Amino acid sequence: MDSANNNRPFTLNTCKDILFGVAIGDVLGVPVEFKSREEISLQPVTGIIGYGTHSKPPGTFSDDSSLTFCLAEAIASGFTLESAARNFINWRYDNYWTADKEVFDIGITTQRAIDRLIKGTPPQHAGDFEEETNGNGSLMRILPLLVHIRDRQINERYQMIKQVSAITHGHVRSVIACFYYLEFALGLLNREEKFAVYNRLQNDVPEYLRSINMSRDETSLFDRLLIGRIDIIPKNQIHSSGYVLHTLEASIWCLLNTDNYKDAVLKAVNLGSDTDTTGAVTGGLAGLLYGYESIPEHWLNQLARKDDVEDLAVRMFKAV
C-alpha cells in the first residue's frame, strides 16, 4: 500500500514543476473566474489574457498561487505549522507573496481561519470544521507539502496533510481531498503512469481510510474517483464550483483526458466557475507529470514575479 521508497527522483526541477504548474493554471483562470461554462464557451480561453473578472493585467496570480508560495516559503525555511500560519497572515494583511501588492481574492473560510490565527488559535485548529465549509481553499495550496512528506510513511503523510489543511479547512472531507491529491502527486513524482496511479489509488486510499476507521459516509462521496472511471464521465457531469470535491474531480478528469500541460490547464479553465482554482489544482499535477519545461515559454514569461518564483523553487529545493 505504501509507495514511499528511497529511489524517488527529486530535483530542483520538481520544485519548479510544482510552483510554476500551479501558478500558470491560476493566471489562466483569473480573468474568467465566476463566468459560466456556457459563457466561456462562446470565447474559450486559449492563453493568458488580462483584466476580465478582477481587472488585473495578464500574468496576475490569485490567492491560489499566493498561498501556495506561502506554504513553499515555510518549507524553504524549515517547515513548521506556525511558519506556514505566519506566512498566511502576512499574505492577508501585509500583501506578502501577492502578485501586485494587493490581495484581491480570498475565501470566506480562509479569512475566518486567518483571523483566528491572529487571535492565537493553534494552526491545526484554526480552520472551520463544519461540513458546509468544504471549499477548495486548502486543496489549492497544498501541493508544496509533497516535497516535505515524500519520504515519509503513509500514516505520517496523512497526519501532516491533515494538520496543514486544517490551518484553514479542518473538515475531514477537505483532508481526504488533499490526501488523495498528494498521493496522486506522489505517484507522478515516482514516475508512475497517470492511469497506473489512478488505478492504484482506488485500492490504496480506501484501504488506508479503512485502517483509520474513516466514516463510510465520507469516503463514499469520493466514489467517482475511488470506484468509478472519472475519465469517462461526460463533461456535463463534471462540476467546477468552489466545492473541494468538485475541484478534485475536475482536476483528475482534466489530467486523464489530456496528454500535455497546455491542454490540461486549458480544459480546466474552460470548465468555468472557479476557473483559477480548477486551473491551479490541475496545473500542479500536470506540472509534475510533464515538467515545467513543457509549459509554453511565452506563458512563463508573462507570469508576475517569475524570477521570485524561480528563486523560491531554488530555496525550497535546498531546504529539503
Short description:
The protein has 320 residues and is mainly alpha-helical.
Strand and helix layout:
Elements: H1 12-29, H2 37-41, H3 63-76, H4 81-94, H5 108-118, H6 145-149, H7 154-166, H8 172-189, H9 194-211, H10 216-219, H11 223-226, H12 244-256, H13 261-269, H14 275-290, H15 297-302, H16 306-319
Helix pairs in contact: 1-3, 1-13, 1-14, 1-16, 3-4, 3-16, 4-5, 7-8, 8-9, 8-14, 12-13, 12-14, 13-14
Report on the architecture of this protein:
This protein has 320 residues and is mainly α. 57% of the residues lie in helices and 0% in strands. The chain is globular, with a radius of gyration of 18 Å. Mean pLDDT is 96; it is low at 3-7.
Please provide the count of β strands.
0
Low-confidence stretches: 3-7
Give me the secondary-structure category: mainly alpha
Radius of gyration equals 18 Å
Using brief descriptors, characterize the structure shown:
single chain, 320 residues, mainly alpha, 57% helix, disordered N terminus
